[in-house]
């Protein structure tokens, strides 16, 4: 029964469909598979005829997956990925493994990179490549990225994930600036985020919780686009920064920043490591997930849950 079922599967058409779905382009799929766009179109049409359902909406200059196409793509992409990874584990390892990771520049600079030495000490044969562009990557569409470290209030039901830790925001500054803040209103350092709902009212929330009257009248505020710039400004003594307890941890540990009224914290979002289901079994990805669990435990922070389905 199983042999007959596998023998009847149109594997060439399924591979053409997976490529066209991931790239959302028959032309790009043709280039990837070294065939003509017409061949991709014929393969996809034959698959639709075999299934009896439409997989794509053909639009002017583009294609879009139907609901059935989305469902097939998710299961097929994961299955082909698992087959590719199983085959890869049988091939001789010539020059070690690589892992492509997408995250924000601030998280990479302030949390990840300072700790990566411990990962390399455990896994000297795995090379980690960082992608720190701002665009949110669709892992189902971009097979070049193995996993993402994402900061968000959202859930990701279609991805395998590990919740690393939840975040809170507190106020930090150089020892001199923290001492001065007890006697006068300090200059405030803030971050202008593209996703404003994650940070926009942070100083107001912190001042309301602490009872500090720093915002009335409005004080001098220095604003930066990235957290690591804001922290560097605070380290240089330019004022007090409202900062993530995660991203500020290295600076506090080294003593260049100290908390001001450490008992006052406002809630942030959460950090999660995410990948396409099935990819977590790929040896470099599995090793990185295990290392991230160790580092999260080392931080002593409790996430909302241990794992996302």
How are the secondary structure elements laid out?
Elements: H1 2-7, H2 11-23, H3 26-33, H4 37-51, E1 56-59, E2 62-65, H5 67-90, E3 97-102, H6 105-122, E4 126-131, E5 147-152, E6 160-173, H7 175-181, E7 188-191, H8 202-210, E8 221-224, H9 227-235, E9 240-244, H10 249-254, E10 258-260, E11 266-275, H11 283-299
Parallel strand pairs: 3-4, 3-5, 7-8, 7-9
Antiparallel strand pairs: 1-2, 5-11, 6-9, 6-10, 6-11
Report on the structure:
The structure is a single chain. By secondary structure, the chain is α/β, with parallel strands linked by helices. The protein folds into 2 domains: 2-90, Orthogonal Bundle (Arc Repressor Mutant, subunit A), CATH 1.10.10.10; 93-309, D-Maltodextrin-Binding Protein, domain 2, CATH 3.40.190. It has 11 helices and 11 strands. Strands 3, 4, 5, 6, 7, 8, 9, 10 and 11 form a 9-stranded mixed sheet that branches. Helix 2 packs across helix 4 (37-51). The two termini are 31 Å apart. Mean pLDDT is 85; it is low at 305-309.
Which class of the largest domain in CATH terms?
A: Alpha Beta
The assigned CATH architecture of the largest domain is 3-Layer(aba) Sandwich
Nearest-integer average pLDDT: 85
Q: Largest beta sheet, briefly?
A: 9 strands, mixed
The count of strands amounts to 11
Query: Are there runs of 5+ residues with pLDDT below 50, and where?
Result: 305-309
Strand-and-helix sequence, N→C? HHHHEEHEHEEEHEHEHEHEEH
Total domains: 2
Total of DSSP H or I helical runs spanning 4+ residues: 11
Computed structural class: alpha/beta
Shape: elongated
Termini separation: 31 Å
Percentage beta strand: 15-25%
Here the CATH topology of the largest domain equals D-Maltodextrin-Binding Protein, domain 2
Rg of Cα set: 24 Å
Summarize the amount of helix as a percent range.
Answer: 40-55%
């Amino acid at each position: 029964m199983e042999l007959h079922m596998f023998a009847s599967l149109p594997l060439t058409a399924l591979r053409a469909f997976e490529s066209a779905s991931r790239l959302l382009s028959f032309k790009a799929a043709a280039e990837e598979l070294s065939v003509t766009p017409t061949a991709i179109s014929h393969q996809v049409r034959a698959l639709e005829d075999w299934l009896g359902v439409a997989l794509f909406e053909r639009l002017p200059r583009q294609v879009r997956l139907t609901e059935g196409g989305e469902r097939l793509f998710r299961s097929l992409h994961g299955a082909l990925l698992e087959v590719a990874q199983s085959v890869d584990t049988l091939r001789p390892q010539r020059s070690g493994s690589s892992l492509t990771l997408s995250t924000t520049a601030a998280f990479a600079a302030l949390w990840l990179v300072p700790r990566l030495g411990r990962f390399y000490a455990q896994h000297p044969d795995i090379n980690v490549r960082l992608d720190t562009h701002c665009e949110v990557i669709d892992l189902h569409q971009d097979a070049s990225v193995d996993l993402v470290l994402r900061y968000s209030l959202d859930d990701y039901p279609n991805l395998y994930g590990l919740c690393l830790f939840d975040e809170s925001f507190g106020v930090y500054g150089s020892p001199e600036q923290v001492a001065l803040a007890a006697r006068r209103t300090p200059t405030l350092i803030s971050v202008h985020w593209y996703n404003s709902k994650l940070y926009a009212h942070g100083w107001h929330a912190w001042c309301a919780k602490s009872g500090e009257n720093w915002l009335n009248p409005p004080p001098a505020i220095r604003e930066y686009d990235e957290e690591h710039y804001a922290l560097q400004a605070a380290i240089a003594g330019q004022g007090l920064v409202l900062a993530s307890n995660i991203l500020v941890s290295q600076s506090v540990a080294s003593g260049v920043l100290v908390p001001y009224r450490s008992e006052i914290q406002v809630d942030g979002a959460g950090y999660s490591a995410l990948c396409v289901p099935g990819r977590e079994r790929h040896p470099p990805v599995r090793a990185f997930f295990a290392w991230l669990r160790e580092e999260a435990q080392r931080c002593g922070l409790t996430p909302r849950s241990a794992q996302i389905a």
